[in-house]
Amino acid sequence: MKKTKFLNSLLVLGSLLFLPELAHAQSDSTEMADSGKAETSIEVVYTEINNNSKILTATVKTKIDDAYQGVKDIAVNFYQNEVDPAYLLGTVASNEKGLAVLVIPDGKLAPTAFENTFVAAVENNDKFEDNQEEITVSEADFTMTLSEEDSTRQVVISLQAPDAEGVMTPVAETEIHLYVQRLFGLLPLSDDPETTDENGEVTVEFPAGIPGDTAGNLIIVAKVEEHEQFGNLTFQRKINWGVPLVIDPNKDKRQLWSSRANAPIYLIVFINTMLIGIWGVIAYIIYQVFQIKKLGRQKTP
After folding, report:
1. Digit-coded pLDDT (tens) for 233-288
2. pTM greater than 0.85 (yes/no)
3. Which CATH fold topology does 41-138 show?
4. What is the DSSP string of 115-145?
């Protein structure tokens, strides 16, 4: 009797502890069923390359198991100024990470006064609610000049933007990141970013000894990253300031440390001979087993 009362007490206590959580979970599922669609979050990034190519990147995410994850194959509409079919720049489906990237076609942008507002919108989707996010960026003139004098190589970066009257003026106190393009990423030229002076310029001496291609060419990249006024600005130029790559013909010769295709002939012959010998012994043993079995049948009366 006492044992039964103890078990009943445990059941009542467990119900009191877990009932709020169950009610909360039920409330959430009911809310999702009422709306019929999941909510999304959108992040918009603007990038301009060499004062020419303008790129919009939208990241669409939704909350799954208390964590935001990218939404794949969702159509994102990009607009200029406002969500209106007349201002549609293009529609892009997101990839597996939820990224939708639009390179704005030449001549597609409507003329504006020194700044642009871009909108990324999810509209009329069967699974997700309508949502939109916008970003406003100012026009900028971001350039790179390369000079060489008396074996001294200099990289000069200039950043200007129009004022209220449209006159291009220097932009001071802006961080500039300098890199050299490598095969799998960007190599920083300094540990810390450079800052533009009162003339909107940054002057950096290019270091010697950086490997280039066979002609010594390399690509220098300057960036303004995640600026609240300009977004992301990139300027890159190719120049033969690198150390020429020398291709060693001995690497293609047949050596022990070479790739399988360039293995030494004697090693290939030796290994194949061993394999043939091993399989030959196995085949001989199988043959002898059959011979023994055959002789056994012949001696059976």
Report:
1. 999 999 999 999 887 766 667 777 667 777 888 888 999 999 999 999 999 999 99
2. no
3. Immunoglobulin-like (2.60.40)
4. EEEEEEEE-S-SSB--EEEEEEEE--EEEEE
